[in-house]
Each structure stands twice: as structure tokens, then as C-alpha cells.
Amino acid sequence: AQSVAQPEDQVNVAEGNPLTVKCTYSVSGNPYLFWYVQYPNRGLQFLLKYITGDNLVKGSYGFEAEFNKSQTSFHLKKPSALVSDSALYFCAPTGANNLFFGTGTRLTVIP
Amino acid sequence: DAGVTQSPTHLIKTRGQQVTLRCSPKSGHDTVSWYQQALGQGPQFIFQYYEEEERQRGNFPDRFSGHQFPNYSSELNVNALLLGDSALYLCASSRKTGGRYQETQYFGPGTRLLVL
User: Fold this and answer.
1) Interface touch A99/B33, C-beta < 8 Å
2) How many CB pairs under 8 A join A and B?
3) Per the count of CB atoms within 10 A, which of A36, A66, A109, B17 is most buried?
4) Residue span of the structural domain in which B38 resides
5) Looking at residue A7, what is its pLDDT?
6) CATH topology for A3-110?
7) Contact at 8 Å (CB) between B6 and B21?
8) Chain B environment of A41 (Cβ under 8 Å)
């Protein structure tokens, strides 16, 4: 069975501080892992993905994510948060099936 | 370069009616996937089309059907609408690479369907 968990429904961070949005997954076989962001009343925008290779993946808008196979985690990070980063973030693994989404984490960056 | 486009943006239907949603993929993409996102939930996979055939299907009833045209655009049809079908319907396009799901899916803005 395939599953994804984002343990925090809500993350608040002050502008300029580092941010982390956590994700753990369970897939059969080698995982392909994606992060998407959704702004209000909008579709999903691709941020980054891990397929193979370097465990640290760099993506759009200064975001990066670290793949940890032993902990089955793929946490999203950014060194310095912007107010404009406030949105809903989804971690989505694939594997044997198509993209599988959890309920997401709402990030609020406080000015 | 146009991204994924969807029409209409909003739609209001009544129970029992039928609805058709449309999607045009990003230039160079040949695979279209449809997702349903209920309020407060993450997107759920409905089905995927490639080479004008349904290739994969999620856990949705037969009331949900689709079509892909030779130009790779796609339609999602929902029959006998239920109140629970109210959601944001997202279309995503990608390139197909040997059946593996590592290609990035790019999403359209969605169609918000309200069933009364």
C-alpha cells in the first residue's frame, strides 16, 4: 500500500526565518517524490522532485528538500521564509501508482 | 508557451445532471491525468489518459468517464451528479516515458464544480 503523511496541518514561521515542512511516505519499490504548492483558488505548482541521485534536491523559489531513505522522509526546507511563501504545500510520492496526495500542510509566514 | 488550460473555471449543476470538463495539456505533453480535490483535502487521482486510452484509474465509480482526443486534449465526464461531487477538478499533463511515473505533472488552474 502507498501512503504519505504530513504530520503538521499548520506551520507558522516568522519572515526571514528558516522553514521546514515535514513529509514521510510509504511506497513499494523505489520512490519518486514530489512537492507541490497551492495558492488560494489555484491549481498546484511544481516545486521539486527526487528521482535518484543526490539526496538534497533544489527546486523553484529557493526551496530544497532532503531525501532520507532510512527514515522514509522528504522534508521541504527554505533558508529564509517570505510572506509570499504562505500557501498550502503537498508532498506526493509515486511508485507503482500515480501521484498520491495527503491533506497537505498550510504554511503561514508572519511579517 | 501556454501551460495547462481548463474550462470552464466554475460550474453549477443540480443533482442528477451530467457535466463535461475540458483540459488542454502543456505544449509537448501527451499524457493527461485528472484529479478531484474536495474542500480541505488533497487531490485524489481519478484516471490517466495516454494515446487516447484510459491507462490507469483511481477509486472512482463508473459515473466518471473520460476521453482523450488526437491533439492530446481531454474531457472528464461525470454522470448522475451527487452533492458529494462538488469539488475542484484538476487536470495535469506530462510526458509519458516508458510507463514510469517520474515525469513531472503540471497542473491547470482547475474547474470548481458545485452540485446543488
Assistant:
1) yes
2) 59
3) A36
4) 5-115
5) 95
6) Immunoglobulin-like (2.60.40)
7) yes
8) 112
Question: Which residues numbered 8-67 in A keep a CB inside 8 Å of some CB on B?
Answer: 32, 34, 36, 41-46, 49, 51
B21 is written with which cell numbers? 470538463
Pick out chain B residues at pLDDT < 70.
Answer: 1, 97-102
Q: Among A77, A102, A96, A105, which Cα is nearest to A31's?
A: A96
Q: Is the alpha carbon torsion for B29, B2, B72, B108 positive or negative? A: positive
Banded model confidence at residue A42, pLDDT cuts 50, 70, 90? confident
A9-13, A80-84, A91-95, B90-94: which range is least confident on average? A91-95
Distance CA A86, CA B89 (A): 23
- Please give the tally of structural domains in chain B: 1
Task: For residue A25, list its beta bridge partners.
Answer: A4
Asked if A34 and B104 come within 8 Å (Cβ–Cβ), the reply is yes
For A19, the 3-state DSSP assignment is: strand
Give B90's contacts in chain A (Cβ within 8 Å): 43-44
